[in-house]
Write the structure tokens for this entry.
Amino acid sequence: MLSELKNRYFAAHIFIIFNVRSSLKMVSRRLLRVKILQISYAYFKSSDQSINHSEKELFFSIQKSYDLYHYLILLIIDIVNYAESRIDLASKKRIPTYDDLNPNKKFTENLLVKKLEQNTSLQSYLNNQKLSWVNYPELIKNLYNEIKDSDLYKSYMNSGVSSFTEDKKFITEVYSHIIAQYEPLYQNLEEQSIYWNDDIEFVIQMIIKSFRSFKVNSDENTELMPLFKNDEDKDFTKRLFRKVVLNYKENEDLISKFIQNWDVERVAFIDNVIMCLAISELVEFPEIPTKVTLDEYIEIAKFYSTQKSNIFINGILDKIVEHLKKEGKIKKSGRGLIGEI
């Protein structure tokens, strides 16, 4: 979906790391906006349009991101278990070496991984959703070798330090510098689910954020990130999608008034959808600052549209915001909205 229009989602880490100060939750508002954009685009391109069906598809897509979150946490557990099996095999050689019988078990006894493996929330979710890497032993083996051959691994194994802090730092760096950069993983996950094409790097960053909640005294009941912080995000998703669909023609007509020297049909369709999303959010959500909405969709346009679309969209939306404010259709209220007119 949108493959002919987008670069790899979250290809730059600057774009990945956002909403750092917000309360921890798996899906950020930006990811929700992207999901709504994808489903809206598909809805408008479909000859068999059904709002209810598309809405179900939207929430299913969000749930699949949450599946991926748990699935990728399981990945490091299975890699460590594979490493443990290699140690066990080596010890059973007919003529084992000293190293075979006295292996360095720092990686296989990593304290963060042990806590993840014992986490009841993680294990329950994996069991309920039947998520497993059992059918991909080569991926586990190759990723283990990728980690084992890295300078990061060698430095960790030979540091002479053993602490929960160091173990957590190492696993965090494995996700950041090895797993997130491992192209065969992307190929594997994209083959497993079309819903994961754009989510992998985002989810890895959410996993890294989750590790922060694990402390040396954390037990098996340590909570992972919830899918939504509260019902507000669900409401935001449903309302925004429906408003985009129901008001699309009206918003498209509004856009056409501010496109100088351009026929609206000549504007990239994805640009139209992005601008319609922005207009709907500006009008329908008084608690969201105008600047936040504009910044979000301009950033999304950088990754989902043509090279200069973000500049074009920025210019058109500025004019539309001025027009809608004069007509009294943009009214902002609530905390953090000082300076809004």
Q: What stands out?
A: Residues 13-211 form one domain.
